[in-house]
Structure of Mitochondrial import inner membrane translocase subunit:
Amino acid sequence: VNITHYIFCVFRTYVMSSPPSSNDINDPANQAAAGAALALATTELEYRVELLNKMVASCYDKCAARPFKEGSLSVGENSCVDRCCAKYWQVVAIVGQLLGAQK
């Protein structure tokens, strides 16, 4: 994943819904909004990276046999990782829905 590209895409979604005119670019209010959108995109990216890292660590610790016998995961380990990741994202979605409902 190209992080710079991801931040740009999220930034563009929040800020650049319509092309700015030269007056819009120089407007301090628009510059502040663009800065806030970039900060939001950066925070969202950091959250997603942290979430992915936690999932990888959790599922790897649960599913990978130690000591390592082979250079790649076995079929059983792959299945375990697939199930673990699916469950992890389901829980993240449920927690997100619950937190969204509280607002």
User: Anything to note?
Assistant: Helices lie at 3-15, 22-26, 28-63, 75-102. The two ends are 31 Å apart (CA to CA). The domain at 30-101 is CATH 1.10.287.810 (Helix Hairpins). The first helix runs from residue 3 to 15.
